[in-house]
Specification:
Strand content: 15-25%
Order of helices and strands: HEHEHHEHEHEHEHEHHEEEEEHHEH
CATH topology of the largest domain: Rossmann fold
Distance between the termini: 19 Å
Shape: globular
Strand order of the largest sheet: 12-11-7-10-9-8-13
CATH architecture of the largest domain: 3-Layer(aba) Sandwich
Structural class: alpha/beta
Radius of gyration: 20 Å
Length: about 350
């Protein structure tokens, strides 16, 4: 995917401002406002239903103590301007959040002084690095909705910058918290020997195939299996994807992406003591609870290494598809992405 001149300029400016690869001032723990000091949430991107769902849950009359008093107070609407299915939502979603007392601002620069933490909800993952770097420069904890970025290289750079600036960031699909997963991970069926998951896998031409929607089922797969995938094989046609991952310890995990017929989320975990399915998907509440706990504590629920490996898995799946189902080693994907990220930071 080619990088636009505008994106290069903003990225270079942001990296310069936080002292990554270029001379400039460095935000650190002594910078005023660096640490989380309140419960005001800002949203970037009103082009996804997630923004509406989170606003209703947090600002609605039934929020109660579940969300520790956190409220969404301001939003910058954009957002994808190129993906029509996303951009056409912005006017209606803007009016919707205003009903819940959310102030609409004209830029991310205008948003940041008004909030303590940020939800980056922009549906277009290609914009996430540019937008997130502005938040990191301001030293604010941030949740980044799926996909964390639209490439592994962008994500590597993003996490490197966040780590150097000691700014916690968290990204996850709500499928990580699907019903039944916790008890299986806690040992109900013994050691997990393998898993198969499924989810809708709608494609969007601006993103690598699984980054757009298949990421939900892939996240569930990694929730069950953990990190350590070494190679990926993908079989694909217009209606279905079947992606098989081989883990370093000999375990095998599979993801089925659905584009025809009944669309649903779920899977099966194979353990030493039993085999059990998990599901049903019940919405965003479980994820939102994790987001608020993260905002409050600064403790990231999902290690960056796992989030990055999910992206590596999906990029390997794309390359396998391009090579007619040939196995792709994740080491190759990692090396290529690190080289690209290194070039972007200079």
């Amino acid at each position: 995917m080619r990088t636009s001149g505008r994106r290069e300029f903003v990225l270079s400016s942001a990296l310069c401002g936080i002292g990554i690869g270029l001379m400039g001032s460095v935000v650190n723990a002594s910078t005023p406002g660096f640490k989380n000091e309140g419960k005001r949430i800002g949203i970037i991107g009103l082009d996804t239903s997630h923004s509406i769902a989170f606003t209703k849950a947090l600002n609605g009359p039934d929020a109660g103590e579940t969300y520790l008093g956190y409220k969404i107070v301001a939003a910058y609407p954009f957002g994808s301007r190129e993906i029509v299915s996303s951009s056409e939502r912005i006017p209606g979603y803007t009016e919707e959040v205003k009903k819940y007392g959310v102030e609409i601002v004209n830029s991310i620069d205008d948003l940041l002084p008004e909030v303590d933490v940020v939800m980056l909800e922009t549906n277009d993952g290609r914009l996430h690095l540019e937008q997130a770097l502005q938040v990191i420069k301001a030293g604010k904890r941030m949740f980044i909705d799926k996909p964390v970025t639209a490439s592994l290289a962008d994500a590597i750079l993003l996490y490197e910058v966040a780590k150097k600036q000691d700014v916690p960031i968290f990204s996850s699909s709500s499928l990580r918290y699907i019903a039944g997963m916790d008890e299986l991970l806690s040992g109900k069926i013994g050691k997990i020997l393998g898993a198969e998951t499924y989810s809708p896998a709608k494609l969007e031409k601006t993103h690598p195939d699984l980054f757009w929607y298949g990421i939900h089922g892939v996240e569930a797969l990694f929730t069950a299996m953990g990190t350590g995938c070494k190679s990926v094989v993908r079989i694909s046609n217009a209606d279905t994807d079947l992606v098989v991952g081989s883990w370093n310890d000999g375990r095998i995990g599979t993801f089925r992406g659905i584009r025809k017929g009944k669309l649903d989320y779920g899977g099966t975990i194979f353990g030493e003591k039993g085999i059990q399915s998990f599901g049903n998907y019940s919405g965003y509440d479980s994820l939102l609870v994790q987001i608020i706990r993260f905002f409050d504590s600064g403790i990231v629920p999902v290690k960056p290494e796992e989030t990055l490996e999910i992206l590596a898995f999906m990029e390997a799946a794309d390359l396998s598809k391009a090579n007619n189902g040939t196995a792709v080693e994740l080491d190759f994907i990692w090396k290529k992405a690190h080289k690209t990220a290194s070039g972007q930071s200079k």
